[in-house]
């Protein structure tokens, strides 16, 4: 177990940030940011398509560069930071893992929906055997209880994960929610614990601090919060706040601020902001990536997109179930029509 | 004393938001937003120049409209919300207060630097005698201890204030800092307690929640966080988060989200974001309004603006002492020059 006050910052700017630009970051943009983050002493830089290795596709978006080229570029830019990649089984395969390891990935993250963690087993074992750091991630973790998450993490630890943890994929948590879950996981496992926030309710930094106080020692963050939906935890805020609270990250502040300025000027067409849609998506506990489809369907059918989000949340819809957006919209439209007719008859 | 779980939301969009547009909100913009916030049931709408009554000037910026016209416009837009105005003694006088009361202001806020609260006495008394709600505010409150703030609040209560509280003018606080201060004030006074955040460290909503848990029952917030520097607490996030935690505000969510959308589209040329300068200003505990002058001086003299902010923080510089920015820059420049010469000689 690592020391309580040492936090490893895992920079997802070049992976989760891709969601904000439909996976169109160029190799030159990646190089610029990776060099700056490396110079600031950021310990881990993640790279790839927003949905991870092998995910570039018409379904979730074609990346402008191949996994191979992105990894080669970032690897070359780093002389002190470690390189990480992310993989969702189904999109990626062991072949993708082998390629990433050959290209110098030091950290391999395998993610799965929080209740479907058993799919991570063979990939965690594979990465572990290859001698890289294997990490197991539970997505949409607000849909499971602290005990369920702790049990899942124990299982991933048994599969060989050297770090396990949770993503707040829809930005639903408030700090006390995070404290309960991380404390339950801390109680159950011996390995490092990962926490990853989204900022839908303006809580990304506060939740990450709550996680670190409860025992998480790997925190994900992105420059200027660049990321899906309302964005992620803002790395250049998180780091000095951790320092102020007595945690150590080994990162140099001015260098990190410079890297964030580069991200703002060179990578981000618009800043990550908390819009009305982000807020409703966070309150409803719906995957942030649903935003564009919900908005399109709502406009086409003359329905309030907020009603769709709350209904999707009630139905506990998860990433991959995008088709349900239309079903929900149709049902809401029918209900609205019936209500209108009822009003006319009265 | 009000019920613990009832929070009065005080909407500063049309007053603190003015800082973000150099006090150039038009009467039509004010009418649009005030009508929407009123329709959503926001209980108090503040209006005026960013620095309050009587502050329109070359020194801090000329507002595009007069105090009188702004108050007339907003008053006419409200049929359920109360109207508030803000005044800093020195800028505003009892004549300004009388005009505001004649124009239908229901709430009069008198602000002062946290250690200079005695200047509020005659204005709080004046407002109280006129039969409006008198509120006393301590600015830059991180520069005083919890005990000093509590003592100041007791004094303002004795001057007649029916609500007293603190502004985190430089966005320096983390939640525990707020909890300690509000708890100390709660212990000392019987009247309502006000808390007002800035978002420099991404903590505006989290700090406001900490304040409400510690006993604050009037929380300031702005649509989309519109406000000085990194912006204020985002009202349309704060309200549903308070509801989720069991607090009541009487505000209707969809109406509030609509009002925030109007603010974003009609009032804000750019969104409030947390830039590197905002972060350094928050860490250093320097008034957010210093940003443009620090940046200009730094550029002219070839100095890192971050060094200026940290030095201003070390010197505990307060609003109104803008002239010190140049002194600090000159001293830093001299120090840098000496260091360079030293390097050349070696």
UniProtKB/TrEMBL annotation, chains A, B:
Site positions per UniProt: Transition state stabilizer: 15
Residues bound to Mn(2+): 16, 196, 198
Pfam families recorded: DmpG_comm, HMGL-like
UniProt catalytic activity: (S)-4-hydroxy-2-oxohexanoate = propanal + pyruvate; (S)-4-hydroxy-2-oxopentanoate = acetaldehyde + pyruvate
Binding site for substrate: 15-16, 169, 196
InterPro entries recorded: 2-IPM_HCS-like, 4OH_2_O-val_aldolase, Aldolase_TIM, DmpG_comm, DRE_TIM_HOA, PYR_CT
Source species, domain of life: Bacteria
MF term (GO), any: 4-hydroxy-2-oxovalerate aldolase activity
The UniProt record lists the keyword Metal-binding: yes
EC number: 4.1.3.39
UniProt entry tagged with the keyword Metal-binding: yes
Keywords: Aromatic hydrocarbons catabolism, Lyase, Manganese, Metal-binding
Enzyme class: lyase
Annotated catalytic residues: 19 (proton acceptor)
Pyruvate carboxyltransferase domain span: 7-257
HAMAP family for this protein: HOA
Family according to the record: Belongs to the 4-hydroxy-2-oxovalerate aldolase family.
Name of protein: 4-hydroxy-2-oxovalerate aldolase
């Amino acid at each position: 177990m690592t020391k309580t006050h040492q936090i490893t910052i895992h920079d997802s700017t070049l992976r989760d940030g891709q969601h904000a630009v439909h996976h169109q970051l160029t190799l030159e943009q990646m190089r610029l940011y990776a060099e700056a983050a490396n110079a600031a002493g950021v310990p881990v830089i993640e790279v790839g398509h927003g949905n991870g290795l092998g995910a570039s596709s018409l379904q979730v978006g074609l990346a402008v560069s191949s996994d191979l080229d992105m990894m080669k570029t970032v690897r070359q830019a780093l002389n002190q930071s470690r390189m990480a990649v992310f993989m969702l089984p189904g999109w990626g395969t062991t072949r993708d893992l082998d390629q990433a390891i050959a290209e110098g990935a030091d950290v391999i993250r395998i993610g799965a929906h929080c209740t479907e963690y058993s799919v991570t087993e063979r990939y965690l074992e594979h990465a572990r055997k290859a001698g890289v750091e294997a990490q197991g991630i539970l997505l949409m973790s607000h849909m499971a209880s602290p005990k369920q998450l702790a049990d899942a993490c124990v299982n991933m630890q048994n599969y060989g994960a050297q770090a396990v943890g949770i993503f707040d994929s829809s930005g639903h948590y408030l700090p006390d929610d995070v404290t309960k879950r991380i404390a339950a996981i801390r109680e159950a496992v011996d390995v490092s614990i990962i926490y990853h926030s989204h900022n839908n309710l303006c809580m990304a930094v506060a939740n990450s601090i709550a996680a670190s106080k409860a025992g998480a020692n790997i925190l994900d963050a992105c420059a200027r919060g660049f990321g899906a939906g309302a964005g992620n935890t803002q790395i250049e805020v998180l780091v000095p706040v951790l320092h102020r609270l007595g945690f150590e990250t080994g990162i140099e502040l001015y260098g990190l601020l410079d890297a964030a300025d580069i991200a703002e000027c060179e990578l981000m067409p618009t800043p990550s902001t908390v819009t009305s849609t982000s807020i409703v998506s966070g309150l409803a506990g719906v995957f942030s990536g649903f935003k564009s489809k919900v908005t399109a369907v709502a406009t086409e059918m003359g329905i309030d997109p907020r009603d769709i989000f709350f209904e999707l949340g009630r139905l506990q819809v998860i990433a991959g179930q995008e088709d349900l957006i239309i079903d929900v919209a149709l049902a809401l439209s029918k209900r609205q029509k019936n209500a209108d007719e009822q009003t006319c008859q009265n």
